[in-house]
Write a structure and sequence with these properties.
The structure is a homodimer. By secondary structure, chain A is mainly alpha-helical. Chain A has two domains: about 45 residues, Orthogonal Bundle (Arc Repressor Mutant, subunit A), CATH 1.10.10; about 140 residues, Tetracycline Repressor, domain 2, CATH 1.10.357.10. In chain A, about 75% of the residues lie in helices and about 0% in strands. Chain A has twelve helices and no strands. In chain A, α1 crosses α6 and α10 packs antiparallel against α12. The N terminus of chain A is likely disordered. Chains A and B meet through α1, α6, α7, α8 and α10 of A and α1, α6, α7, α8 and α10 of B. Chain A binds a DNA duplex through α3.
Chain lengths: ~210, ~210
DNA sequence: GTCTATAACGTGATAGAC
DNA sequence: GTCTATCACGTTATAGAC
């Protein structure tokens, strides 16, 4: 038993409570529209404690932002670099994994995209996203498919854009989608579940389109 | 000659200058991060004039927001309801038109999606987006295609999501896309131009995927 | 209509008691 | 570590002269 922990901090430590609250509020409203008072209230603690633990709103934000990006790209990067799965398998894994992730955290993609736009270099450039994607097994398999004539030649970015777009876009545009289809959140999520099965089929068809 | 104008206001009237400036700043930074001083400076006028013409930051924002939504949905709604063009033609027209529109106004989609999320009912529900899309010729043609066995049966929303996603998503995610591909704005725009030709092909393939 | 000056308010951050 | 009270500052909005 007795699992060793690096930090004694459990989920109900004050620091963790503040971070959890910060995620909720930042994800929902973005940096500028968030007031430190909102976070304190959400965390059920005093406003002064927030500054005691994190010095400033911006420092707290940067921590949340970095953790969130890491989390998001880590998961995709792992799948992208699996050696022993086919390209098709990877597409399925990504569609499945991300849709579940986004159903559980629907506010994150729009949050990330909005805040990344504000400071593109601060995060995007630094993280070496370029290398992670362009040197991945995933990309090599894609280019191999082209060489073998199994895939219609296109710029790899089109492929990435379409896979990501089909998966992420509905969550980014959920208010409009829900509005058009008059969907409840449950109905919307069911539709997203359908896409787990459909996206791989569509991508496959797309890759062969002439 | 002598074109009659409803309002004498030309493009350099103070009111119009403020609105133009407001568009620039709101689109780039969103409501919360925008300071009325930024708008005044961008417009080259005094801060007090902004309140003289529009009463408050929020009132000015609502005007810009409404106009922008109208503009965006008006253009799609026209295409959606053309009686004498095929479904394929409509897809081409939308991909072409929107990509040009978004190249010229790359900040708008992320702006709209972010702000719509803040007040979903304020705008989405009111505008009858549901009716516009679901009762369109576009949709009827799609369902006719299913009936005739030319299109694999799926929920129409999947179709809308994919068409919109392929077209709009890259602009929403442009910082990441540019980061991954190490693209300049020019290179990015060229890639988007390629998509005008590719999206109709992909959508066509998608509609027949089994 | 347009400006300067300033009021009124909200928010991030800190001092200091416990 | 946690709280209450308060400061310090930036921002929206207005008053009033021109």
């Amino acid at each position: 038993m007795a699992v060793k922990k690096v930090k004694p901090a459990n989920d109900t430590s004050t620091e963790e409570k503040i971070k959890n609250a910060a995620r909720v509020v930042f994800f929902k409203k973005g940096f500028a529209a968030t007031r430190t008072r909102d976070i304190a209230e959400e965390a059920g603690i005093n406003l002064a404690l927030l500054n005691y633990y994190f010095r400033s709103k911006e420092k707290l934000f940067d921590i949340i932002m970095l953790e969130t990006i890491m989390n998001f790209f880590k998961s995709i990067s792992v799948v992208f670099n699996m050696e022993d799965t086919t390209l098709e398998n990877k597409i399925e894994t990504i569609a499945n994994g991300y849709i579940d992730l986004l159903k559980a955290n629907p506010d994150i993609p729009l949050f990330l995209l909005s805040e990344l736009k504000m400071q593109p270099d601060e995060f995007v450039a630094k993280m070496g996203v370029k290398e992670i994607v362009m040197k991945s097994v995933f990309l090599k398999q894609f280019q191999q498919g082209i060489k073998e004539g199994k895939i219609t030649p296109i710029h790899p970015l089109h492929f990435i854009i379409n896979l990501l777009g089909m998966t992420v876009f509905p969550f980014v545009a959920s208010p409009i989608i829900k509005g058009i289809g008059d969907l409840s959140t449950k109905q919307f999520n069911d539709l997203m579940d359908e896409r787990k099965r459909l996206i791989p089929k569509w991508i496959k068809a797309m890759l062969k389109a002439k």
